[in-house]
Fold each of these.
Amino acid sequence: MARLLIPLPFAAASASSLHLAVSRLPLAAVSAARRECLFGGRVVGGVVRAPARLSKRGLCAGAEAGDSAVTVEAMEWVKKDRRRLLHVVYRVGDLDKTIKFYTECLGMKLLRKRDIPEERYTNAFLGYGPEDSHFVVELTYNYGVESYNIGTGFGHFGIAVEDVAKTVELIKAKGGTVTREPGPVKGGKSVIAFIEDPDGYKFELIERGPTPEPLCQKSLIHFVILQRHLAWNFFASETILSTSIRLR
């Protein structure tokens, strides 16, 4: 699945699901102090080290309190932090031609289109997902203007695709312009290519697999389950000589 390579915060369409909210947070968002409280031990270099002796009541209370604290922190973060990149606006000379190129060659979806005749311009919004959770492009067509000078300040947009060579072949078949054939980036292994849209705006195609987000969600869910499992084991056995669990 193609996607614009713009860093975005995690979307939270519904705050009613605890596991969804927590699992969509990056691990870094959970402070070391929270993790210590969560596991009733210390976190050193990605390794959880449990104390030698823990009381039944103290451990379970600590684990529960930690879980609750992380939950509150996650929910508050989702509610309060609304910052994210929304869209980029640029002008095109042939709106329909550009929309066709973006949808057929780059795999974007036309999200909405609006015409403002009194102001003599038309907008089209395209992207790889809904505007409320994805970065999108806003194309502007001004009546009667067929071309623009892009200038020297603009570089390029970056798009992740699963198969750069296949995408380039499709672009060529549609009459698009390829300015750099698929191949490894200089000094690296990533496969890239450069193309231009009908107005000359440059796009870098970067070969990447599907987004790892679902895997992250699964790992964090297992992280919570692991915490509960540890709490039960500590409760069942009052004395633990040494425990070292490496987080994977």
Amino acid sequence: MASTVQAPPPAPPARPPRYKRSFAGPVVLIIVGIFFLLSNMGIISWHNFGLWFSHYWPVLLIVWGIIKLIEYQQANREGQRARGIGAGGVMLVVMVVIAGLIASEVVKWHPGELCEDPDIHGLPWCGSTYNYTDDLQQAFPANGSLHVNSERGAINLTVSDDSQVHVSVHKRINADRQEQADQWNKTTRPQISVNGQVVTVDANTHGAGDHPITNDLDIAIPRKASVVLASRHGDISIMGRDGSADITSRSGDVSITDLNGNAIVNLDDSSARLSQIASDVVIQGRAKEVSLEDIKGTVPKAVNFKSSRTDMSFARLDGELDLESGDLEVSNVVGPFNLNTRHKDIRINGVSSNVLVRNENGPVEIEVTRLGNLDVQNDRADIRIFVPEKSSFQVDAQARNGEIQSDFNELKIENGDNRSTASGSVNGGSSHIVLNNQHGSIEIRKGEAVEAPPSTPKAPKTAKPPNVPEPSEN
């Protein structure tokens, strides 16, 4: 009897080849960890580590890519499937890219300025703050002038009682160790140089390279001397001067009080307050807030102001100007006067020549001294215009969801439920008045402006004391 031949048991299914673990992620983490360790040990400053990372973070992605390429080629030689990046790898790459982009933008934004901000504390790359003081003096030539250059720090200029220039220095240095701060203090000592009749004071904050150094300078010189001051980041104050003042300020507040000479102020994202000026004033650039009071001379040249929400220009200012965050008041101004803004209460007392105003969320009141063309557009607030009784003009006005009133009987006024209009000519109509308002009324009055009784009386502004800059914190 033939024996039954049993078939061999089926072979178990072959296991898929196991992926080899990638070394790309661990290598990148090791590199980053080494730099963090060196920074914690003080071998590398946090400031330098931040700068290096902001410039060279793409190297981490390059290292990652090279390792993955080598692993891919090795897997092909061994007949294995190459391992992909994986969810963890994707997350790590995304984190590196986001951190690198943020670091690159922060460096463009000058990280040293963040360290000087009083509202920001504990940033690891800022280190500790060390304070130093110093005093310098130099003979000041007769009929000389002073030039001051400062990258970061306040400049406070007063009058000396002798023929010397006195400089008192208040310095702040951010560093990881006292030794570093001491070294940078030596390389950033302010310098005084004399070339003929010109005395130059250099704050020398660039002496430590990219490290955040702040030099606040209290300078006293003879009253008759003219000055030229330039600050990139810090407040400027001038009190008591017979000579002229030429100021260039970026990211700071400028205060000039009791100046008998001319004042030239160039602003870039700065504010200015000028009072008791006996000569002419020229202001130009991009300003945040501007106040002009007790100007005995004139503002003789065309002025341009630009900020995040205000664009203003005019030909000459013979009166005063007060520009704040929510208010703009100007008196005795010569046009063409152009103003494009929003969220401001506008009052123009005494304007000559052409006027163009664009505003919203704030009333507009204009008193005309010599009428030119007048074009005003407002939204969600009232318009009040005061015109000399004998002026010659024609009117085209309309108000949506508001009414129109006029003291001039020659004008034809139609007030409706949703739309009101006014048109016509007065005394021949040589000038053109165009008024447009959305959700507000329009008034066309004769003569000089008269305060309308407000529901809540507005407290009069008190004269502000001159701003003596405190040590810069920005």
Amino acid sequence: MDCRNWIVEVVESARAGLQPDAQLQKHLRECPRCTDRWDDEQRLSAELRTMRDAASSRSEVRREAIMREFELAHGTVMRRSVKLAFSIAAILLLTLALGQVWRNHRPADTIAQNPGSSAPGNEFEASVLTNVPEDDDFIAVPYAPPLAPGEFIRVVRTQLRPNALARMGIYVDASLSEMPADVVIGEDGFPRAVRVLGDIQF
């Protein structure tokens, strides 16, 4: 076998990382040219393995870095989603609270639209009535819906102008600027009945 055939075996053994067999070892001891080729191929194979290992380790490091970036980005998105959910919940709660406050203060706002306003301590306790009490000189407000069974009402003492009373069918002295009156307010905040108090002083 000539050196050309031995070199093929040298290259294959070196690249596979195998030790030469007995015949190749005998030839390497006798042929300096094939020995030099064996040494060159081993160095080349070692360098290729080193480069491959380095590339593999860099790839692993890069993969870990990408995974860390993904986790950070995913965590940021999750945190933003949680913040957005909490913000929406807070807005809803605030809206509900403001709606409740507005609803509770609606009767006061309705009375405030009249020229006079109720003074502190002039509002009677809320009570449950099935209809407007006509035996206490209360006059139903025209076109006002009837009270629902079990509906809570409030009786508010205030000052009303004679023209407002006249629109409700109550005839009073037009020369007076204001008249003291009790106003029955339903749960919806609208007046249901009025009672003129005469000479009651506020």
Amino acid sequence: MPALEVTGLEHAFATRTVLQGVSLRLPAGQTLALVGPSGCGKSTLLHLCAGLLDVLDGEVRNGFDRTAVLFQSPHLLPWKTTLDNIALSLKARGVNRRTRTARAMAMGHALGLDDVALAQFPNQLSGGMQSRAALARALVLEPDLLLLDEPFAALDIGLKAQMHQLLLEQQRTRGLAVLMITHDVTEAITLADRVRVMAASPGRFVWEMTLPVPAIARSEAWVHQHTAALLAQPVVRAAFELPPLRGVTEEAGSGSAAAASPDGAMGPAGAAQSAGAPGDHAPQTCPAVQARGVLQVPDDLLVVDAGVALDVDSTVRRTGC
């Protein structure tokens, strides 16, 4: 089975170390989200995986046949129509005009771009339509690995939700492997099978959460509950420079994974557990999770940044600092 494998990656710009001891493995069909504060090296890591930067120390092995990258800005050419922008990557591959036009049109339609939008120029499109066009341009290549560099960061909540749904549908249909970076924890919990948290100076992984329910089946309540569980961990809060969460007990313990239902209910022993990658530190159970896997906080206390008050029942594990 093809996979993207990163082992012992180190990177520096001049004398500043940006990444240190980074390892990960992304197999076919899985979505891995990397979250962390600005400046922690997320984009640098993705650019190294894409081959846009030279690897200085460590190893990046991309076993996929076709890789596509989606950046923060749509980067649509203003003098070309939406259809021609989508077809541009096929033109670069030497696909003849008739074939690339047909494929670009079919992909545009699949992502909600009608014939009017496909005939327009980028400055005539809304931000959401531009994002759809950029995603269509990436997917028309029929990649088996998609790298996402916060492409939905500038969209409002409604448009972002629409793009999430489109991406999930395409990922399920095509069996894509997706490596995405974001500073939005809720977005990561919405889309990913695994979430890894990065801290800065130097960039490194400090936490991992594995999500047992397929992304396409998750409810908003389920997403908010797991977002709260992740943001309750002291090492995660420290990475984002958030103040400590009042009332979290620091009792050592262990928990085993249990299935979680898509309506937000979670198993009695917790529903998130790490799956280590080659080269990772052995995961340790979060000290804030007791033996039965329940994060102990006062009933009215767990109010995370999104303003969601939830009772959390989840086991998460540390990947090493």
